Every structure is written in C-alpha cells, then in structure tokens.
Amino acid sequence: MKALQVPEFATYEEEADFWDHLDTADFMEDDGQWFHFETPCKRAIRVAILPEIAEELSQKAQAQGVSIETLVNTLLIDHIRESTLPN
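Above: the chain's sequence. Below: its structure in token form.
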C-alpha cells in the first residue's frame, strides 16, 4: 500500500482534475471489508389501483410536477401520520 501524496494546486480545476483521475485502489489496504454493507431487506411493493383513481392521481401528480409514485407515497405518509396522532 502506497501513501497518498496530494500536491499543491494552482486552481480549483487543477485539483478537480487530479481527484477525477485518481485511482485510490493503490492507497487502500485490501482487508476484504471495503464494500461490506448491512442493509435491511426492504423492497417496494406494487399495489393495484382502480383505473379511475389512477387517472385522477396521475392528473394531480402532473399538476404538482411530481411522479405518481411520489404523490401516492406522500398521500399515504400523510394519512398514516394523521391516523396515528392522539385525539
């Protein structure tokens, strides 16, 4: 493993070019743990929506400039939060 020596840069562009073209593999110890991530097993699910509801959601999403998925997720989150608030 080599030690990384970063030079002095005259400009931001010069520094950006240095980092853009640097292969850091030579400077990292290969302990087999570089890219070990523990992630929860969460997946998106698909839900059937009646065509007339889907059309209305699509129109609202387009009017708001978001995807239908974003709109539906936002509406569901809002509904869940409202229904779990204490009365």
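The radius of gyration is 25 Å.
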